[in-house]
Amino acid sequence: MELQNDLLIRAAKGEKVERTPVWLMRQAGRILPEYRAVRNRLSGFIELAQTPELAAEVTIQPVDILGVDAAIIFSDILVIPEAMGLPYEMVEKKGPRFPKTISTDEDLKALKKADAKSDLGYVLEAIKITKKELNGRVPLIGFAGAPWTIFCYMVEGHGSKTFSKARRMLYNDPMMADQLLKLITDSTIEYLKAQIKAGADIVQVFDSWAGILGPEQYQRFSMKYIAEICDAITEVPVTVFSKGAFFARSEMRHLNCETIGLDWSMDIQNSRRLIGENKTLQGNLDPCALYAPDVEIEKATKKMLDEFGTSRHIANLGHGVYPDIDPNKVKVFINTVKEYSAKLRSTEI
Ligand SMILES: Cc1c2[nH]c(c1CCC(=O)O)Cc1[nH]c(c(CCC(=O)O)c1C)Cc1[nH]c(c(CCC(=O)O)c1C)Cc1[nH]c(c(C)c1CCC(=O)O)C2
Question: Which GO terms describe its molecular function (predicted)?
Fold first, then answer.
C-alpha cells in the first residue's frame, strides 16, 4: 500500500517536502472525548490496548479529528516488561505500577527475553488492522521505550522524582544493571522489527528518563543500548527522543538514526549546531504553550518554524501533549504548522 501522505517519512530521510509534517507525542488518547468514549466502555487502558480493533480505532482518531500527518499505534512502552515476565497495572490518576520489581539476581533470572509474536501479538494485530483502515492516508509510527527508561520502571516499580533505586543499581551492581539492560535491548529490537513487519512505517524510541542521568552514565547505561537498537533497525527510519539529555546532543550525531527529538528546553539553533546537518530534528514547542490564547499559539509556532527552517524538521511538541489541553488548541498548532511552513517554502528562492 503506497502512502498518499508521506511527508513524515520524506522529512525523516532528509528529502525535500512541500511543508513541514506535524504530529503530537501522546496524541492517541488523553485529550479526545472520542477516546474517552471508547475507553469508558472497557475496564481501562490495558483492556483497550489489548483489544486490537479498538486500539486501531483510537489510533486513527487523531488523524480524522486533528489532521495530523501520522498515526502512532495505541499501546504503551510498558508492554515490554510485561512480555519479559513483569506485569504492570494502570492505576487511575496515578499511572503505571509494577506489583513485582527487579532487585536481586533471582528476580533477574525469573525474566525472559520477550517473544514479540507470542507475548505481544495483540500490538502486532492492532498495527495490521490500523494499516488496513488507514489505507495509506498517513504513515503509522511504531514505538518502544529506551532500555534505560524501561529499566527505571522495572527496578523502581512506578514513576519517581529521583529514580534512586534504579540509579543505585548503576553504582552498586553495574554488572546486574547491564544484564537487565541487555535483556531489555534484545527484547526491544525483536519487538520493533515485528512492529515493522506488521506495518509500522517508522519507529520511535522514547527515553523519557534520560535526563536524570549525568553525561557519563547516560553514555554508559542509556546511549550505548539505544545505539544497539539503532544499528539493528535498518528497515525503516528511526527517531530517538531522549528527554532532558541536552548534554548528549553532540554525541547523538553518531547514532545510526534519521531523527532526533528535542524537548522544549533544548534551544533550536544550538541543537542543530551540536547534532549537525545529517539528522532531522523533531519538536519542540513547550506543551504548556497550548494553554495560551490562539494568537499566542500561532506566534510561538511560527517562531519555532522560523528557527528550525525548511529542511530536516518534523513539527511536534517538546514532550507528550498534556491531558487537559483543549483539542481546539491542538488544531491551532497543527493548522499553523501546515499553513505557515508551506508559506515559508513558497517564498524561498
Ligand atoms: C514514560 C511513558 C509511558 N508511556 C509512554 C511513555 C513515553 C513517553 C512520555 O515520556 O510521555 C508512551 C506512550 N503511552 C501511550 C502511548 C500511545 C501513543 C501516543 O498517543 O503517543 C505512548 C507513545 C498511551 C498511554 N499511556 C498511558 C495512558 C493513559 C491511561 C488511561 O487511559 O488511563 C495512555 C493513553 C498511561 C501511562 N503510561 C506511562 C505513564 C507514566 C502513564 C500514566 C500517565 C500518563 O497518562 O502519561 C509510561
Answer: uroporphyrinogen decarboxylase activity
Q: Which domains does the chain have, with CATH numbers?
A: 7-346 (3.20.20.210)
Q: Strands, E, within 89-195: which ranges? A: 89-91, 95-97, 140-145
Q: Whose CA is nearest to atom 36 of ligand 1?
A: 95
Beta carbons within 8 Å of 323's beta carbon, 6+ residues apart: 30, 31
Residue with cell 483510537: 58
Contact 57, 120 (CB under 8 A): no
Measured CA to CA in angstroms, residue 338 lies from 18, 84, 228 at distances of 10, 41, 35
Reply yes or no on whether 137 is catalytic.
Answer: no
Q: What is the rounded distance in angstroms from the CA atom of residue 85 to the CA atom of residue 76?
A: 16
Q: Which of 244, 239, 146, 141 is nearest to 199 (CA)?
A: 141
Q: What is the mean pLDDT of each run of 10 residues along the chain (349 residues)?
A: 95 98 94 95 95 98 98 98 97 93 98 98 98 98 98 97 96 98 98 98 98 98 98 98 98 98 98 98 98 98 98 98 97 98 89
**Residue-wise pLDDT tens digits, 45-90:** 999 999 999 999 999 999 999 999 999 999 999 999 999 999 999 9
Site to substitute for ligand 1 among 76, 140, 222, most atoms within 8 A of C-beta: 76
Q: How far apart are CA 276 and CA 141, in angstroms?
A: 24
